[in-house]
Amino acid sequence: MRGALVLVVALAAASCGDDGRTSDRPSAATSAPVEATPATSTLATSLSATTVRPGPVCPAAVVSPGDVDVSVTYGSVSGIVRRHVPASYDGASPVPLVVYLHGYGQSVDDADGVSGLAALGQRKGFISVVPQIAHGAATHWDDTIGSADQAWLGSLLDDLAGSVCIDPARVYVVGLSNGAMMASTLACAFAERVAAIAPIAGLRDPTGCAPSKPVPIIAVHGTDDPAVSYDGGFGPGLAGQRLDDGAGSLSGVLSADGPSMPEMAAAWAGRNGCSAGDPLEDRLGPSVVAVRFPCPTRAEVEILRYEGFGHVWNAGAPEGGADPAIEIMWDFFAAHPLGATA
Asked: What is the mean pLDDT of each run of 10 residues along the chain (342 residues)?
């Protein structure tokens, strides 16, 4: 796939045939999901549990620059979080946080090995984390609104806010495939604490979604995606399969029918108070088109449509001088802090 950095497709990799890239770090511990309860953390000295403070007030816990895997337990649910803290972090100045949600069947290593966020965070000065909990035979997220997975991620955000010097106005979520579905759910449920999201190959219009405020969205999707079709439903690599250990969007038999990416983006545009009408298209390179809906400033919804690309996270395809998707995504995040108004 032309110049694209192919991620593990996580949605049933056996059927899609994508190869995963992993590092030599140990895989995360697994546990069965249960209803999440107030957080008790085993983040050791690196993320000690402290009282969550409103506003950009730095906690007393000491976190040093560098990369670390930490185990966390919230209620009866355990998982692992890989955290990347840039060299510029001083513990006194609040910095942005980017949470990366892996796809179906992926480990922390799979997701972290190809996301590009650790290196970007070093250059841009933000902290990134990659969380993982396990379900049945394959890791995945239950993207149902109100799920235990949503509560677990909420507890993680609480823990980070109380132990690392993070700017609460600049918390962003990126997700691939099933992780993109979960990112869509977090935008519905945590609109007051998530400033913007970037769903990659899996934007969703969740049932029952009623965010408390507009959530800016920049989605990334390939027109030839064989797993999650740009034109709607699941693609030929997955349609008709049953994921018995799936949940949310991935439960039961996967259907080839469903709203297209532009239709789901239009639903979000409606929630964000955007004007009715067709989106505008702006070609950014030979294969990349930005599809932008007519939205108010600071409530923008757009899709980066990668023509001819599949189920990928394009972290650096050559595009005739255009910025790669990961740079465009970060620029979008940086322009959309929480609470900003026109």
From this structure: 36 35 32 35 34 59 90 88 97 96 92 90 97 81 94 96 95 97 98 97 96 97 96 94 87 94 97 93 92 95 94 65 81 91 47
Sheet holding 301-306, edge to edge: 66-74, 77-85, 127-132, 95-101, 166-176, 196-200, 217-222, 301-306, 288-292, 280-283
CA 130/CA 158 separation, integer angstroms: 15
In b/e form, how buried is each residue of 214-237, taking b as 16+ CB within 10 angstroms? Answer: bbbbbbbbbbebbbbbbebebbeb
CA 210 to chain centre: 19
Q: What is the pTM of this model?
A: 0.84
Spatial contact of 291 and 279, defined as CB atoms under 8 Å apart: yes
> How many other C-beta atoms lie within 10 A of the C-beta of residue 73?
17
Q: Which domains does the chain have, with CATH numbers?
A: 28-50+57-334 (3.40.50.1820)
Angle between helix 148-161 and 178-189 (nearest 10): 70
Residue pair 212/297 in contact (Cβ under 8 Å)? The answer is no
What tokens appear for 173 in the block?
Answer: 């979520």
Q: Which of 171, 170, 164 is nearest to 60 (CA)?
A: 164
Query: Dihedral of CA 328/330/334/337: which sign?
Result: positive
